[in-house]
Amino acid sequence: MTSAHPAAPTPARSRPARPGRPARPGRRGGVRGAWNTAAALLILAVLLFPVYWMLNTALQPDSGIAAVTWLPTAPRLESFQTALESQGGSLLTSLAVALGAVAVCLALAAPAAYGLAQSGLRGGRAVVFTTLITQMVPGIVIANALYSAYAELGLVNSYLGLILADASLGLPFSVVLLRAFMVSIPGEVVEAALVDGANRFTAFVRVVLPMSRNALITAGLFTFLFAWSDFMFALTLNTTDDVKPITLGIYQFVGAHVSDWGAVMATAVMSAVPAAILLVVAQKYIAAGITGGSVK
């Protein structure tokens, strides 16, 4: 007798896989992107409209403030010449004060931030938090307190006094920003420099500061903008025209030439040019400096 073995199951015939169809870009994404672009352009137009109106008014020197047309059909530069003759010295004063404030601020903020970031000091976060709280104090309170101290020290109506006051505007922000960046610097890099024979100061200057270039540029730029746009300290700490920044010059210029709005707007345009150039040139460093300390 032969035993019957069960027949083996026949394997199912597999169907060839159909090639997948490329996914079509969704219309929703395209429409949403178009709406986002339109909204961004609208917001940009609203933000830049005051700048355009200043330039438009400055190019129409003979028109009153209510008779300025939307487009300068016959632009002239007399207003810029008048503004440069009367406010050129104030522009140079603001430039000197702002650059001096940047130098003082970075000279103080960089070692302070490095000490808070790498020394392992107890209560370092409390110090940083206290530094941030100082920016909540109203500027008029600080200006009045500084005036009393400056009167005793002989710093009223002086470049040094205004530089120190404007440097205090950017110092808290610079310390916080630089500390956030320097925390991410590996300690092994500094230790390697110490092993090679460098002391702490040399390692800080030759290793830490070059690695913190983006953060230093960002802190310096914001300090420059704080000092360039300062009005409270310029008005409170100066009782004469010996040291007159451009903000104080515009304030006095409006009172003296309130009918010549073309010259006033030309002065405002010239005062905005240095800050705009710095922002355009240093925008990549600003982005890297702000986000550099967020990733360790």
**Main beta sheet: strand number and arrangement?**
none
Mean pLDDT: 82
Q: pLDDT under 50 segments (min length 5)? A: 1-5
- The proportion of residues in beta strands is under 5%
CATH architecture classification of the largest domain? Orthogonal Bundle
Shape: globular
Order of helices and strands: HHHHHHHHHHHH
Distance between the termini: 81 Å
Binned, the helix content reads: 55-70%
Radius of gyration: 30 Å
The oligomeric state of the chains shown is single chain
CATH class of the largest domain: Mainly Alpha
Q: Within the CATH hierarchy, at the fold level, what is the topology of the largest domain?
A: MetI-like fold
Derived structural class: mainly alpha
Count of helical segments? Answer: 12
Domains (count): 2
The total beta strand count reads 0
CATH superfamily of the largest domain: MetI-like
Defining traits:
single chain; mainly alpha; MetI-like fold; globular; BP-dep_ABC_trans_perm; transport
Could you please describe the fold and organization of this structure?
With 296 residues, the chain is mainly alpha-helical. It is built from 12 helices and no strands. The N terminus is likely disordered. It is found in: Cell membrane. One of its GO terms (biological process) is transmembrane transport. This is Carbohydrate ABC transporter permease. Its main location: membrane.
